[in-house]
Amino acid sequence: MEIESTLISEAEIQKRVWELGQQISEDYSNREPVLVCVLKGAAVFFADLFRTVSIPVRCEFIQLSSYDDRTESSGHVRTVQGLNGNLHNADVVVVEDIVDTGQTLSFLMKEFQALEPASVKVCSLLNKPTRRIVSATIDYVGFEIPDTFVVGYGLDYAQKYRNLREIYHIKA
Ligand code: IMP
Fold first, then answer.
1. The CATH number of the domain where 120 resides is what?
2. Contact (Cβ atoms closer than 8 angstroms) between residue 10 and residue 65
3. Number of domains in the chain
4. Which of 6, 40, 51, 170 sees the fewest Cβ atoms within 10 Å?
Protein backbone atom coordinates (compact mmCIF):
# COMPACT_ATOMS: atom_id res chain seq x y z
CA MET A 1 0.00 0.00 0.00
CA GLU A 2 1.31 3.43 -0.83
CA ILE A 3 0.06 7.00 -0.62
CA GLU A 4 -1.32 8.13 -3.99
CA SER A 5 -2.61 11.73 -3.83
CA THR A 6 -4.24 14.27 -1.54
CA LEU A 7 -8.02 13.99 -1.40
CA ILE A 8 -8.73 16.71 1.20
CA SER A 9 -6.19 19.38 2.16
CA GLU A 10 -5.39 20.53 5.67
CA ALA A 11 -7.04 23.93 5.02
CA GLU A 12 -10.24 22.32 3.74
CA ILE A 13 -10.37 20.02 6.76
CA GLN A 14 -9.86 22.85 9.25
CA LYS A 15 -12.53 25.02 7.61
CA ARG A 16 -15.09 22.22 7.60
CA VAL A 17 -14.30 21.13 11.17
CA TRP A 18 -14.84 24.70 12.34
CA GLU A 19 -18.22 24.81 10.53
CA LEU A 20 -19.30 21.55 12.17
CA GLY A 21 -18.29 22.87 15.59
CA GLN A 22 -20.35 26.02 15.03
CA GLN A 23 -23.34 23.99 13.91
CA ILE A 24 -23.19 21.71 16.95
CA SER A 25 -22.80 24.73 19.25
CA GLU A 26 -25.92 26.32 17.74
CA ASP A 27 -27.99 23.13 17.78
CA TYR A 28 -27.16 22.39 21.43
CA SER A 29 -27.14 26.00 22.65
CA ASN A 30 -29.31 25.36 25.72
CA ARG A 31 -27.87 21.97 26.56
CA GLU A 32 -24.60 20.39 27.58
CA PRO A 33 -23.95 17.61 25.05
CA VAL A 34 -21.58 14.70 25.53
CA LEU A 35 -19.32 14.23 22.53
CA VAL A 36 -18.22 10.59 22.32
CA CYS A 37 -14.99 9.92 20.44
CA VAL A 38 -14.85 6.58 18.65
CA LEU A 39 -11.21 5.50 18.94
CA LYS A 40 -8.82 5.30 17.34
CA GLY A 41 -9.78 6.73 13.95
CA ALA A 42 -11.75 9.76 15.21
CA ALA A 43 -9.11 10.89 17.75
CA VAL A 44 -7.52 13.61 15.61
CA PHE A 45 -10.84 14.91 14.26
CA PHE A 46 -12.30 14.80 17.76
CA ALA A 47 -9.50 16.86 19.30
CA ASP A 48 -10.00 19.60 16.69
CA LEU A 49 -13.82 19.48 16.68
CA PHE A 50 -14.07 19.50 20.47
CA ARG A 51 -12.07 22.73 20.65
CA THR A 52 -14.32 24.51 18.14
CA VAL A 53 -17.43 23.86 20.26
CA SER A 54 -18.23 27.08 22.08
CA ILE A 55 -20.86 25.84 24.57
CA PRO A 56 -20.34 23.73 27.71
CA VAL A 57 -19.59 20.18 26.58
CA ARG A 58 -18.37 16.86 28.00
CA CYS A 59 -16.30 14.16 26.37
CA GLU A 60 -16.23 10.37 26.56
CA PHE A 61 -14.24 7.75 24.66
CA ILE A 62 -15.06 4.31 23.30
CA GLN A 63 -12.73 2.02 21.38
CA LEU A 64 -13.96 -0.40 18.73
CA SER A 65 -12.28 -2.79 16.37
CA SER A 66 -13.37 -4.39 13.09
CA TYR A 67 -10.55 -4.16 10.56
CA ASP A 68 -7.63 -6.33 11.65
CA ASP A 69 -5.17 -4.55 9.31
CA ARG A 70 -7.23 -4.94 6.14
CA THR A 71 -9.02 -2.40 3.96
CA GLU A 72 -12.32 -4.27 4.18
CA SER A 73 -14.29 -4.31 7.41
CA SER A 74 -14.61 -7.80 8.89
CA GLY A 75 -18.19 -6.94 9.79
CA HIS A 76 -17.55 -8.25 13.30
CA VAL A 77 -17.42 -5.08 15.34
CA ARG A 78 -16.32 -5.47 18.94
CA THR A 79 -15.78 -3.11 21.84
CA VAL A 80 -12.14 -2.94 22.89
CA GLN A 81 -12.78 -0.38 25.60
CA GLY A 82 -16.23 0.70 26.73
CA LEU A 83 -17.65 3.95 28.03
CA ASN A 84 -16.90 4.97 31.59
CA GLY A 85 -19.24 7.95 31.98
CA ASN A 86 -22.96 7.86 32.66
CA LEU A 87 -24.94 8.72 29.52
CA HIS A 88 -28.39 8.27 31.05
CA ASN A 89 -30.53 11.26 29.95
CA ALA A 90 -27.54 12.81 28.18
CA ASP A 91 -27.57 14.46 24.75
CA VAL A 92 -25.00 12.32 22.98
CA VAL A 93 -23.11 13.20 19.80
CA VAL A 94 -21.18 10.21 18.49
CA VAL A 95 -18.04 11.40 16.68
CA GLU A 96 -16.82 8.99 13.98
CA ASP A 97 -13.99 9.21 11.47
CA ILE A 98 -15.81 7.60 8.54
CA VAL A 99 -19.02 5.73 7.82
CA ASP A 100 -18.40 3.08 5.18
CA THR A 101 -20.60 -0.06 5.24
CA GLY A 102 -22.51 1.35 8.23
CA GLN A 103 -21.94 -1.77 10.35
CA THR A 104 -19.89 0.02 13.00
CA LEU A 105 -22.46 2.78 13.37
CA SER A 106 -25.31 0.31 13.59
CA PHE A 107 -23.43 -1.56 16.36
CA LEU A 108 -22.73 1.73 18.17
CA MET A 109 -26.33 2.94 18.02
CA LYS A 110 -27.50 -0.26 19.71
CA GLU A 111 -24.86 0.16 22.43
CA PHE A 112 -25.87 3.76 23.05
CA GLN A 113 -29.62 3.23 23.02
CA ALA A 114 -29.19 0.66 25.80
CA LEU A 115 -27.75 3.41 28.00
CA GLU A 116 -31.00 5.41 27.70
CA PRO A 117 -29.64 8.80 26.67
CA ALA A 118 -32.04 11.72 26.04
CA SER A 119 -30.89 11.85 22.39
CA VAL A 120 -28.20 10.44 20.12
CA LYS A 121 -26.85 12.18 17.00
CA VAL A 122 -23.96 11.23 14.79
CA CYS A 123 -21.15 13.40 13.46
CA SER A 124 -18.78 11.79 10.95
CA LEU A 125 -15.85 13.51 9.28
CA LEU A 126 -16.22 11.36 6.16
CA ASN A 127 -19.06 9.46 4.48
CA LYS A 128 -18.68 6.80 1.78
CA PRO A 129 -22.39 6.43 0.88
CA THR A 130 -21.84 4.06 -2.04
CA ARG A 131 -20.53 1.28 0.22
CA ARG A 132 -23.46 1.03 2.61
CA ILE A 133 -24.62 -2.44 3.72
CA VAL A 134 -26.59 -1.29 6.78
CA SER A 135 -28.55 1.98 6.55
CA ALA A 136 -27.15 4.79 8.67
CA THR A 137 -28.36 8.25 9.64
CA ILE A 138 -25.56 10.79 9.92
CA ASP A 139 -26.63 14.16 11.31
CA TYR A 140 -23.37 16.02 10.68
CA VAL A 141 -21.14 15.04 7.74
CA GLY A 142 -17.77 16.66 7.04
CA PHE A 143 -17.21 15.38 3.49
CA GLU A 144 -18.80 12.82 1.19
CA ILE A 145 -16.07 10.83 -0.55
CA PRO A 146 -16.02 8.26 -3.36
CA ASP A 147 -15.38 4.55 -2.84
CA THR A 148 -11.65 4.80 -2.20
CA PHE A 149 -9.53 3.84 0.81
CA VAL A 150 -8.20 6.93 2.57
CA VAL A 151 -5.64 7.58 5.30
CA GLY A 152 -4.40 10.54 7.34
CA TYR A 153 -5.93 12.92 9.88
CA GLY A 154 -6.50 9.99 12.25
CA LEU A 155 -7.40 7.37 9.64
CA ASP A 156 -5.04 4.44 9.27
CA TYR A 157 -4.04 1.54 7.14
CA ALA A 158 -2.63 -1.20 9.44
CA GLN A 159 -2.21 1.44 12.18
CA LYS A 160 -0.01 3.66 9.98
CA TYR A 161 -0.51 7.18 8.58
CA ARG A 162 -2.76 8.49 11.37
CA ASN A 163 -0.34 11.39 11.97
CA LEU A 164 -0.61 12.85 8.43
CA ARG A 165 -2.20 16.28 8.36
CA GLU A 166 -4.16 15.81 5.13
CA ILE A 167 -6.43 13.02 3.87
CA TYR A 168 -4.89 10.90 1.13
CA HIS A 169 -5.97 8.19 -1.31
CA ILE A 170 -4.02 5.01 -0.83
CA LYS A 171 -3.44 2.41 -3.53
CA ALA A 172 -2.69 -1.31 -3.34
P1 IMP B 1 -17.99 0.52 8.59
O2 IMP B 1 -18.39 -0.32 9.76
O3 IMP B 1 -17.76 -0.31 7.36
O4 IMP B 1 -18.89 1.69 8.34
O5 IMP B 1 -16.54 1.05 8.88
C6 IMP B 1 -16.28 2.04 9.76
C7 IMP B 1 -14.85 2.02 10.23
O8 IMP B 1 -13.97 1.43 9.27
C9 IMP B 1 -14.39 3.44 10.39
O10 IMP B 1 -14.67 3.91 11.68
C11 IMP B 1 -12.91 3.34 10.07
O12 IMP B 1 -12.18 3.10 11.25
C13 IMP B 1 -12.79 2.18 9.12
N14 IMP B 1 -12.68 2.64 7.71
C15 IMP B 1 -13.63 2.57 6.75
N16 IMP B 1 -13.18 3.09 5.58
C17 IMP B 1 -11.92 3.51 5.83
C18 IMP B 1 -10.92 4.17 5.02
O19 IMP B 1 -11.10 4.49 3.83
N20 IMP B 1 -9.74 4.43 5.64
C21 IMP B 1 -9.48 4.11 6.93
N22 IMP B 1 -10.38 3.51 7.73
C23 IMP B 1 -11.59 3.21 7.18
1. 3.40.50.2020
2. no
3. 1
4. 51
Query: Can you give the pLDDT at residue 77?
Result: 83
User: Which atom of ligand 1 sits closest to the CA of residue 155?
Assistant: 21
pTM (whole model) above 0.90: yes
Q: Write out the residue range of the structural domain in which residue 136 sits.
A: 2-69+77-171
Return the SS3 of 67. Answer: coil
Q: Distance from the CA of 73 to the center of ligand 1, in angstroms?
A: 7
Q: In what order do the strands lie in the sheet with 58-65?
A: 78-81, 58-65, 34-39, 91-99, 119-127, 140-144
Establish whether residue 97 lines the binding site of ligand 1, counting it when its CB lies within 6 angstroms of any ligand atom.
Answer: yes
Q: Which residues of the chain, if any, have pLDDT below 70?
A: 67-75, 172
Residue-wise pLDDT tens digits, 108-125: 999 899 899 999 999 999
Which residues does residue 37 pair with via DSSP β-bridges, in sequence order? 61, 95
